[in-house]
Amino acid sequence: MPGQARETVNKFLRLTFHDFYRSNKEKVDEPIRVETREFAAQDWEIIWQCGPEIENGEVKKPSCGQSGRSFLKITSCPNCGSRGIQMTDWIRHLGFRNQDALLNWLIESAPSNVYHSAAFYETPVARHMGEKVWQGAELVFDIDADHISTECKNSHDAWRCNNPDCQETGTGDPPEVGCPKCGKTAFSARSWLCDKCLDVAKEITLRVHDEFLIQDFGIDPDSIQLNFSGHRGYHLRVRDPRVFKLDSRGRVEIAHYITGMGFRVAPVKDESPADRHRVIIVSKEFPLPTRNRSELNVPGWGNRVAEAMIEFIRNIDSYEGTERWVKYFKDNEDNKKIAARNRENAIQGLMRDPPVLSSWVKSVGDKSWQEIAIRAIEAHGGEIDVPVTHDIHRVIRLIGSLHGKTGLLVTALNRDEIEAFNPLSDSLAITDGSLKVRFGDSPLAVPKIRIGDDTLGPFHNESVELPMAAAVFMLCKGVATIE
After folding, report:
1. What is the rounded CA–CA span in Å between residue 482 and residue 459?
2. At a CB cut-off of 8 Å and minimum separation 6, what does 333 contact?
3. What is the reported pLDDT for 286?
4. What stretches of 110-246 show up as alpha helix (H) in DSSP?
5. Which pairing describes strands 434-439 and 462-467: parallel, antiparallel, or unpaired?
6. Percent helix, strand and coil across the chain, each rounded to 5?
7. How far is CA 442 from CA 48, 286, 396, 445, 481, in A?
8. For the packed helices 99-109 and 3-23, what is the interaxial angle rounded to 10 degrees?
9. Rounded to 5°, angle at Cα 131 from 127 and 134
10. Which of 19, 60, 261, 474 supports an S-S bond with 256, CB 3.0-4.6 Å?
11. What's the CA gap between 217 and 357, in Å, rounded?
C-alpha cells in the first residue's frame, strides 16, 4: 500500500476507534487488580528515534537525539539526516490506578491494539522486568486458527514468492521446501478467516474448557474467563488464586498435558480364545488400565485415548500423514473395501467396554497401533499456543478493545453464550453507514468472506461501496484503501 494511502487509512481508523471507545466505555473490561497490571499497545503511528549511522563498524554520522512520531516509515532523521533510525509501533510499561484512568487513556490514544499482562506486578510501570517484581499471573490459553490445520486454509489463505524475478503465488501455507518455481524460501503470506476455521477454534476452546480445565483439573467454571480474540480464535484465562504462583515449568507441564505431548504408547496383549483382541495402554503419566472402564471414575487421558482414536479413525481422510498404516484406513482405489472394513472393525473394538484393538483390522500390527494412538492423542489434544501459556510475563488482549487487524470487538463470553456465538456477526463493533474502498491489483486477491449478513468478494483491482463493518475490516487487514 502506498505511503500516503496508508497514512490516510491509519488516520481514519484512529478516529473511528476513538469514536467507538468514547461511546462504548461500558464494553471495556476491568481486569482484576488492574493497578498491578502492565499495559501495552500498538499504535497507528511509528515512534522513531535518531541514532548514529554506522558503516563498516564506524560512526559515519552521529546522532542528534531527535525523536518523533510518523504515520510513514522514516528512513533518515529529518533534523540531521542520519540513517541510523530506530523505529517501533509498540508502547510498553503503561500502568493505571483504576478503570477510569484506563478508559481516559484508551479514548485519548485509541491505539490499534491494546494488551495487559496476565501477571500482577508490584511496580508494573518499571522499565525492566526485574524491577517490576512479579507477584503471580493468571493461567492463560490462546486458541488460534493460525495454529490449527484446517482444510479451508487452502481456499482463503495465500502466499507469494518474494523473489522479484519469480513472484509465484499459491494457496494455503507457503511451501516448506521452497518455491516450486524458483526454489527460494522467502514468501509473503496472507492468512484469512472464515466460519469454518472459527468453528474449529471454538470446538477446541470448548474442549480445553470442559474436558481439561473443569473435568481434569477441577477448576471452578466461575474462575475461568472466556473471550473471542477479535480475529481468529479465543482466549481462556484461569483466575483461580491456586494457579497464580505457578512458575513457567509448571505451566509447561499443564500445556503439554492439554496438547498430549510426551506420551509413550504401548499395546499390551490380552489374548482371548473367543475374539483374540488386544487392549492398549498409554504409559508415562496417564495409563489406561485394562480393567472395565465402568470401574473408572477418575478424569484424565486414560479414559480419553479410545475416544481420541475413534475420532481420529473416523476423520482419517483429512489426515495428511504418510505412515504405512494410513492406506489401510483411508479410502483409495486399490483397497477401498478393506479400508472401510478396517475402520468399522477398529471403531467397534474401541467402543467396547473395555476398549480393545480388534484383530479383525487387517495389516495393522502393534507398532502401527502405537503410532495411531499417538497421532490420535495429538489430534484430540487442545491445540493451544504453548508459549502463551508458559510465559509468566505474557501480555494478552484487553477484553472490550478493538482488534487492529479486523476492527472486531474482543468479546467477553460465558460458557452458555459461546456455542451460539458467531464471531463474524456478534463481534461487529463499527456498523453505522458505509464507505467506498479501493482494492489493489495484488496477485493475492481478497477471497470471499461473510461479514454480518453480507457475503462479500472476492475482490481484485476494483472500487466497492461496503457496509462500514466490512470496510473497516478490509482497511484493518491492509487489503484496501479509502477511495
Report:
1. 15
2. none
3. 38
4. 129-132, 153-156, 195-207, 241-244
5. antiparallel
6. 35, 25, 40
7. 29, 51, 32, 6, 13
8. 150
9. 110
10. 261
11. 29
> Is 279's pLDDT higher than 80?
no
Does residue 62 register a pLDDT over 70? yes
**Cell, residue 357:** 484393538
Q: Is the dihedral of CA 362, 366, 371, 376 positive or negative?
A: positive
CATH architecture of residue range(s) 10-36+98-142+198-258+382-429: Alpha-Beta Complex (3.90)
- Reported as a pLDDT band with limits 50, 70 and 90, residue 357 is confident
Residue 447 is classified by DSSP as P
CB-based contacts of 427, cutoff 8 Å, min separation 6: 228, 230, 408, 409, 410, 411
Domain covering 431-483, topology? Ribosomal Protein L9; domain 1 (3.40.5)
Tell me which residue of 267, 281, 371 sits closest to 325, measured CA to CA. 371
**Element at 280 (helix H, strand E):** strand 278-283
Amino acid at 280: I
**384-404 pLDDT, tens digit each:** 999 999 999 999 999 999 999
CA distances from 37 to 32, 90, 101, 308, 410 (A): 9, 17, 13, 39, 18
| Phi, psi values for residue 261, rounded to 5° | -80, 145
- Tell me 214's DSSP state: I
User: What angle is formed at CA 50 by the lines to CA 44 and CA 56, rounded to 5 degrees?
Assistant: 125
pLDDT in tens, 129-182: 999 999 999 999 999 988 887 888 888 999 999 999 999 999 988 998 899 999
Mean pLDDT, rounded, of the chain: 89
Identify the burial level of 83 via C-beta atoms within 10 angstroms of its C-beta, where 0-12 means exposed, 13-18 middle and 19 or more buried: middle
3-state SS of 341-408? Answer: HHHHHHHHHHCCCCCCECCCCCCCCHHHHHHHHHHHHHHHCCCCCHHHHHCCCCEEECCCCECCCCCC
Residues, the chain: 483
The answer to whether the beta carbons of residues 402 and 437 sit under 8 Å apart is no
User: For residue 231, what pLDDT is reported?
Assistant: 96
Q: What is the pLDDT of residue 338?
A: 87
β 412-413/169-171 pair status: unpaired
The answer, as to whether pTM is greater than 0.90, is no
**What secondary structure letter does DSSP report for 452?**
T
pLDDT digits (tens, 9 = 90+) for 241-273: 999 999 999 999 999 989 888 766 655 444 444
